[in-house]
Amino acid sequence: MSTPEAIGQGDPSSVAADQLKSIIDRIERLEDEKVGIAGDIKDVYAEAGANGFDVKTLRKIVALRRKDHDERQEEEALLETYLVALGMA
User: Fold this and answer.
1) Are 29 and 36 in contact (CB under 8 A)?
2) Of 22, 38, 51, 71, which one is least surrounded by beta carbons within 10 A?
3) What is the full DSSP assignment across the chain?
4) In the predicted model, what is the mean pLDDT of residues 13-41?
5) What pTM was computed for the model?
6) C-alpha dihedral, 42 to 29 to 26 to 2, nearest 10°
């Protein structure tokens, strides 16, 4: 574990302190951008809903497109197996 001296707490002009401040600043900036992007995504879903698209289905499609083909096929096969076992297919 780092001591305060190791990260430059005693000497704010140290390289480690500057590097730490830079990292924190970048993280904070990215977190702010993430909040903005999340708001933009929410707006797009709201627009889609207002245009008659089913938002729940759109979210499912986006999730499916993130997965690779093999992973998606495996999930679909398991779903089909479970549906058959429950008498739903």
Assistant:
1) no
2) 51
3) ---TTTTTSS-TTSHHHHHHHHHHHHHHHHHHHHHHHHHHHHHHHHHHHHTT--HHHHHHHHHHHHS-HHHHHHHHHHHHHHHHHTT--
4) 95
5) 0.66
6) -90
Of 30, 9, 29, 28, residue with least CA distance to 18: 9
Please tell me the distance from the alpha carbon of residue 67 to that of residue 71, in angstroms, as a whole number. Answer: 6
Q: What are the structure tokens assigned to 8, written together?
A: 């430059």
Cβ neighbours of residue 67 under 8 Å, at least 6 residues apart? Answer: 75
> pLDDT averaged over the chain?
91
* CA gap 33, 67 in Å, rounded: 25
